[in-house]
Structures are given as C-alpha cells and as structure tokens.
Amino acid sequence: MQLPAAQVAVLEAANADDATSVDAIAEATDLPPETVTGAVFELEDEGLVAVTERVDETITLTDEGAEYAAGDLPEIRLYEAALASGADDEPVSMGQVIGAAELDGNQVDIALSNYARKGYGQIDSGEITADPDADPDADAEANALSVLADDGDGDGESDSDGELAADEFSTEIRDQLERRGLLELAETTVREITLTDDGVTELMAGLETAETVGQVTPELLTGGEWEDVEFAEYNVEADAEQFEGGRVHILRQTADRVKDVLVGMGFQEMEGPHVDADFWINDSLFMPQDHPARTHWDRFALERPTHIDELPAELVERVERAHREGVGEDGEGYHSPWDEDFARALALRGHTTSLSTRYLSGREIGEIEPPARFFSVEKVYRNDTLDPTHLLEFFQIEGWVMAEDLSVRDLMGTFEEFYAQFGIEDIQFKPHYNPYTEPSFELFGTHPTTGELVEIGNSGIFREEMLEPLGVECDVMAWGLALERLLMLMYGFEDIRDIHGTLCDLELLRETEVTY
Amino acid sequence: MPTVDIDPDELRELTGHEEKSDEELQEDLFGLGLEFEGRTEDGAFELEFAPDRLDRLSVEGVARSMRYQYGDARGVHVPATNSAEWTIRVDESVPDERPYVTGAVIRDVDLDEESLDSLIQLQEKLHATMGRKRAKGAIGIHDLTMLRGSPATEGNPTIEYVGIDPDGDRFVPLDSDAELTPAEVLEEHDTGRTYADLVSEYERYPAIYDDIGLFSFPPVINGRRTEVSTDSRDLFVEMTGTDQWTIDKMLNIVCYALAARGATLEDVTVEYSDHELVRPDLSTKTKTVPHDRIETILGIDLDPDEVIDLAERSGLDAAKEEGDNDGELVYEFTVPPYRVDVLHPLDIIDDLGRAYGFNELEPKYPDIGTVGGRHERSRLEDATRTQLVGLGFEDLLNFHMINEAENYDRLDLDPDADVYGAGEPATIKEPYSEDFTMLRTWAMPSLLMVLERNTHRAYPQHLAEIGFTAAVDETENIGIDERRHVGAVLANHDAGYEDAKARLQALARRFDVELETPPTEHPTFISGRTAAVVMDDEVVGVIGEVHPKILVEHDLEVPVAAFEFDLAALQ
What we know:
The structure holds 2 protein chains of 2 kinds. In chain A, the strands form 6 sheets. Chain A has a 7-stranded mixed beta sheet, with helices on both faces. A 4-stranded antiparallel beta sheet of chain A has the order 2-8-3-7. The longest helix of chain A has 15 residues, at about 250-265. Chain A is built from 20 helices and 21 strands. Chain A is flat, with a radius of gyration of 36 Å. Chain A is α+β, with helices and mostly antiparallel strands. Chain B has 4 domains: about 5-70, Phenylalanyl-tRNA Synthetase, Chain B, domain 1, CATH 3.30.56.10; about 80-280, 3-Layer(bba) Sandwich (Phenylalanyl-tRNA Synthetase, Chain B, domain 3); about 285-360, 2-Layer Sandwich (Phenylalanyl-tRNA Synthetase, Chain B, domain 1); about 375-570, Bira Bifunctional Protein, Domain 2 (BirA Bifunctional Protein, domain 2). The longest helix of chain B is centred in the middle third of the chain and has 17 residues, at about 245-260. By secondary structure, chain B is α+β, with helices and mostly antiparallel strands. Chain B is elongated, with a radius of gyration of 34 Å. Classes of the chains: A alpha+beta, B alpha+beta. Strand 14 (about 300-305) of chain A pairs antiparallel with strand 20 (about 425-430) of chain B.
C-alpha cells in the first residue's frame, strides 16, 4: 500500500493494544502535532486506526493567584494585621489596619470584600473588628491555592506550570477562586489512537511512501512534471497566521451609514469651521448670553486666537434686537445682558447647529429656498466629564428640514423614518425645552436587544426669534443626536474610549463585527 | 438636568387627590414633562425637570399644574394682595453692579417642617436657575416680627437697601455665633466663601438695614436675627439682583407657592430715587395667536371651543377675536404672572399641544421633495479613505485636542520651525485637563500615540487617519487655518522608507497628481531618509523614517516609516 510519508510514520508509531496520544506520536515521529492530527483523520477515514477523544480540564494559577499563593491572601493579611492591632478586643480604625497590613491599590478592596464574607470579622463605619475564633490556616481558598502552587513539584499529577487535573478539590472552592480571578480553567481535547485489524494487516503487508511535491513551481508547470506527481496534503482545517489588512474605522463606518440614510431621504450635507464665533454657535440660535451652557463649565473657549475678525454687522444687529426685544408684535426678549464682544469670542463648537445657522443665514451657499433638507455628521466639543459614555469630542448628527408649513407631525414622521433604518422602532416623544426650538421633544427609542427605553435625540421647530433675524420666513424643524450613542446602541459597546481617540485598542477595532 | 424633590403625600394633599397611588402620580408627572428619577432617602420623588417651567420648582407649583391637568382648575388665577404697609427704600449708595430690589410681605403662614423644607428648596432651585447661582437674583426670606421698620414716610415702616464699606458694619450671619463684617463673612463663613466671587470685586457691598441695624448681606447670607422657623407667622421676602424683571418673576413664583398654602399676600412699596414700584407685580400679559398657526404647527384641525378648552386646561385664559386680515380668527390668550417662559405666541401653541397630548398625534412623513447629496470635501475624504484601506491601512479616528508636549516636544518639533507639521497652536482657555490644551497642528503625534498604546498588539501595524488639524493664521476670519491631513504610519520589524513611498506613489497615481520627493530635513525623521512631499509642484507634506529618538520616546521597538500631507493636494 502507498501512503504519504506522514501517514506511514503515524501507522508505524501506533500500537494495536495500547492507545497512543497524538502528542506522543508527534514526539516519536518528530512531526508537528497538526500534521499528525491531519494524518490521523486520513487514516481513520481509511479504517486503519480508531480514534477516541477525551476532554481534559486543567487549572492554571493566574499571576495574581500565584502571588497570593507565595504570600497570603489580602483578607488574611488584613485579619492578621487586625489581630495585631487588637481588633479582637474592640473595633480599630480601618485605615490603621490597612496600613499595618501593607495593602495597597485594589488589594484593599479585595481584602475588604472578602473579609466579612469569610467570617474574619466585621467592618462597620470605617472600623474593623476581628473574630478571635477565625483560623486562617483553615482557609479553604488559601489551602487550595497552595495545593495548586505546590503541585508543580508535588504529586506528579500536573506539569511544572502548576497545572493539574480539575478534580483535586471541591468545585465550590474552584468556582469561587475563578470568580476572584485567581485561577483559570481550560479545556483541551486529547485524541488517542489504536491500530485497527485492517491497520495491522496493512502494516504487516508492508507500506511504501508515496512521492509528493510541496510547491507548484514554474519548472513543474513548464516541464510537464506536474502530470506525474502527487501533491503533499495540507492540513486545510488548521488556522492560518492572523492577517489584518485595511479597514475603515467602525465609528466612521457608522457615520457613513448615517450619511447614506440621510442622503437617501433627500438631505444635503453641510460643513463649516470647528472653531467658531459664539455668535454662530449660540447667539444666532437665540441662546441668551447668560444661559448656563454658555459658561466656561461647558464651553471650550479659545485662549488664542480669542475673537473672530468680522461678523456680518447687519445680522448681528438683528440678532441682538431679537435677544433684547423679541420678534413679532407680541414677542418679548430675554432679560439677559447682550454684548457683541462675547458674540465675537471664539470657541470650539458645542454643537453643529452653528453650521445650520451659517447655512440658514444664506452666507454659506446663498439663500436657501424651501423646501430643503440639510444635514451634517461632524465633531462637536463639550467640556463634560470624561467617562465611558462621554467624550470631550464626539460626533453629532444634525439635520433640519425647511418648508412653508411644518407641523410637529412632520417632525415625528421624519424621525420615525430615520430611526427605523437603524432598527429602532416605537419612537416616543417627550415634550421638552430648548432655548431655540418650540415645541421641543426629547426622542426615546427602544434598544433593539435589551428592550430598554433610551434617549436618542433632541428635536424641535426652530423659534421665530432664531429664524427671523436670519431672514428665514418659513418653518424649519431640526434635530440632533450623538453618533456615538447610535454606535453604542447598534454594537453594544460599553466604553466609548476604546473606540474613539488615542487610547483606542487596535484589537477591538480589528475584531469588531462588520455590519451593514 | 436639574431635579426637584417632591413629597408624594404633600402632592396628594395639595391636589386634593388622596386616592392617587405613587405609580399613578409618576405617570401624571411624566405627562407634565417631569421625569421620575428615583426616590430621596425620605421617600420623596426625585423629578427631573426642563428649565423652562420654573413655576414648578416646588410641590405647590407642581400641584397647581396637576390640578390643571386633572381638570380641577381652569384658566388664570391671580391671588389677592392687601395694600402696602412696608416700604423698601433704595439708597443712592447701593452698588452699581446690583442696583435692583423687590419684595413682598406674606402674612398668616402656617409653616410645618415639610412646608418650610419646600420653601427652602424652592429658594435654592430658583437661585440655581433664574438667579444664575445668585448672580442675577438672590432671595432673602425673613421673620417679619423680628424686623423693626422706622416710619420714614407717612408712618410706613421702612427698610433700606444700601451699599456699605466691606468692613463698614457687623452682624451675626446665619449658622454662626460671631459678629462679622461682610468682608469677614466672605473669608470666614462657609456660605460666604461659596459666594465670595459674586461681590468681592465690588467697591461697596450690598446690605439691607432695618431700624435695629444690618440684617441681610445679599446675595451672600441673611442675618441670624430674622431667621425663619416653623414658629414664624409673618414673612418679609426681599430679592436683589442685576435685573428687575428677573427678581420680580422669582418673587411671583415664591408668592404663588405661599398663597397656595393659605397665606395672605401684602404689597410692598419699592422706592427708588426717581420712581416707585408696588410689588409683587401680579399683572397678567396677553399674546395674540391666529387659529391657523395653531393648526399648522400641531398639524390637526381644531374647533375654537377646543382651543379655548385646551388653553384653560393649561392655566391660560383665551378669548376669540377677529384678526387684522379679513375674517381671520385669532385668540387673545392671557398668561398668568408666574410664567417666565412665554416669550412668543409659539410658546402658547406648545402649551396647547401639551394639553392635547403630543403623543396623541399621528406622525406623518412631510410631503416635500428634495434632492440629497454629499459635500465635496466629505466625498474627497471618503474616496481617499477607501484608497488607504485598499492599500492595507487601518483607519483611525483620533481626538483633535492634544497638548504641547505630545504635539511638539515628543516629536522633537519646534512650533516656530519652518517644517511640515509645525505652526502656532490654537490654545484652549480653560482646558478639561493638561492632556487637552490645544488643537493638534498635525496628525503624526496622534498616530504615534496609538502605536505607543498598542505595542502589545500584533504587527504589522499600518495605520492611517484623515484628520482635522489647526494652526493660528491671522489671514483667516476665525484666525485659524483648519485643514484635513492624510497621515500614515507603517510599523513593523522591517518597515522602511520604501514601504511608505510605495503607498504614497500609489495614492498619487490613483488621484492623478504628479508626486516628487526631494530630500529635506525634518526633526521627526532620520536625516538622509526624509523627503518633502511635492504634489503638482507644491510642497504639501513630508515622508520619511521616524527618528529612533522618537521611537524610543514612544516605547516602540520596531522601525516606523510615515508620511503626512494635505488632503486638499489630491483635489
């Protein structure tokens, strides 16, 4: 019988009476284990060997687990320090005991959260007591850790890395230690083979190694030899080396998706400066100058340069009049100060509504006649607290529709269409307040997977006090939404900082599932 | 968003709806736009409110709105006031920065712990909102029986609003036993320190006197003598500020809240040097709104009777009238004096819509045709990104804010140097942290930071970003030249100049621009392995191998070849 070299070697290394593991054969034949596995499956198909599979569970100490096995568990250190401080008599200040136990960083939390659980004593109002009857030597978790650590040179049932079979101590303790991140459980599949009767027969009859060729070469092709050779078989099931290649950033991809949807709904894209005069960011939106959002707490004012060179004088005058006196016969202005110097001050835009006001003023692409729809998906800047759901810079989806007469029903219909494209249905509208829209609504949608009601945008019909100075004589409805919010809803990300910015994790960007 | 705490038992009592369960109340409150956020330790509802209806900052105001919602009350209600006995005289010495004052006397109040807490909360919430943290308006409430007014005019008792020297007098402030001067209050008293910034620049400090002496140091703190307790029966409310309208409205809200608890309001005369006011000003105002506008904004047909019904259920009065145009139906709506948010007829329409129930409206897609499209710059960005990805780059998205050390120092770059990427920074006045003090002048620093953060991830790391950059440019209207740069880095054990050049060439070829790379010097790159990026005869960028000094600075153990150029050059 003719067989490829690897299969011949495996057959010769296998035994009819005792099962031999793939690893043992690999060692004996000096072949890579994946080659042996491949050959074993081929031989099984030929009926020459029988294969049995078994799943082994192994336990490995984590770095943290190894550290505690060498020293003591933090809660035991805390208990011993508490005893030394006399906490078995009367409560002692926690800070003092923690200091004495030389715990630091997250070890403090670990010690405190396990201390009472394991009956070492009580912690109450910053004071600690110790139970004199507790016995650290009987601590099942500590004992299990030391069994694991010693095992390398111990009973021979595990290798030198501290691995051993999973059944050495109670599963309850094992699970507890796993929850604490002190050990890791892993499953490995062990395959063992024995020769079948047919295998023995073939082996006895003698085996020949077939001649095989590794690589298709130009010589092989031009010389015609390819007709006579057998090609070496690959393990086509094995994983290849990881390859990354290029890929569009996930947030950018989401932005593009939003742009596609909006263009499809008849919206035209706007663009404009990131640093802009407060006039365009706030004043022309009928935001009073003493509005809390315009204080330094929320706003990134520029230190240099400080002011815009030029604002359109006539427009500034009209906007100031709207702030001071209101618009229309029955209009009233704000009872707030108004100062052109503040209007000229530069800041990073806190919303892209600055683009909307620039476009509506007719100064970007000329007068815009109704009907019209415009949008942008651009960055905005807020001096907010940086946390898993808030960035200092994020993308805002901004959109507006201009027509002779628009009603809140048109506004609701537009959002239903838009959000339905992202699988967000059953939009709810909560009446809300914005200085520059009336009526105004917060939009709530149902999370596609969790079913939670989440805020997904803010919207309204622009006030006449905003539109009249800009020279707009019809209705305009508008809305804004954070792109990151939509992304987190769509992908279920928990920390936006992993995605956007220089703290990003390349692996996460590489591994994120493609959506469309 | 601001929150207000409301005791559900009090709400049941004040609305007269003892039968309502907590859950029903929460639902009704959501209908008013007051979202239930949770409960306080005492079991009160914590409600989030939008900062327009400041008349709902206390349980009394919320109960009033609910009675309208339930249909238990209709139309405008204005409480009666008795004529003035007391006068506030405004002295010439009053600080120019805070010239306005208003006030009212409230009699026969019946304060228990709950109603006193509610009054204190209302005062704090008004300070936080309309009062702009007391800068625009500050409230002082005093026990009237502790005041002695000198009868200055026609036998009326009078208190005086004056300006005094910071150390000009002494009084015992609330929560203190010591007699302090106003200046000492700002230094030694907790509340004084909190609000010191409001007055510390003033030449003269605001102060209010009665016949006995100084009893209030607005906007900072009251004196202990006139402190209000559950035993107080008659109150004197004074407010000072930078705008008369604002403090008058704050006063109206407080007066309505106390009147809702059965107190009697009494006018106060405010005597300025050149004119006299009688306060509280509980006059109503009117807004005229065409029927047609109500229908177009709400998108529904309404009968006039329905409009009037919706108005009365919103606490407004409405009367049909004939408009300026022939046969046009308009309404004159009367707005009660506690409303601070009605600036325009549109605000009335919003009230009507809320009374109707916005969620009752059927959404419809607007019947207008428009043509959509992308901006040219955004199309160029996308096209370039597609090419970069095809060339094997992982696309990045970095922050535009950075600091000087990252942008210049760690790349060995001098802001004034005449090399690509340098430039004067646009800086931020009050940055969030030291990490974000300016806008980046080029993308390379961000790319190197990402490499630095990801040394544990698999190589090769071929990263690119089409990103915003900015530098001061006085020829621009905003004083800043905002650009998009194409930045790319190739990090791998064998990355070299040629790898970067090959990809740059491919880009140039695809966009049909002529690329030359004459040698140049740049501190970020290795001398002799650096070139200017010249596209169609213009220097638009730089390409080279990053200098080992900079690699080591960024903890990198592999070579990095890189290029960066202006996106506009591909146009």
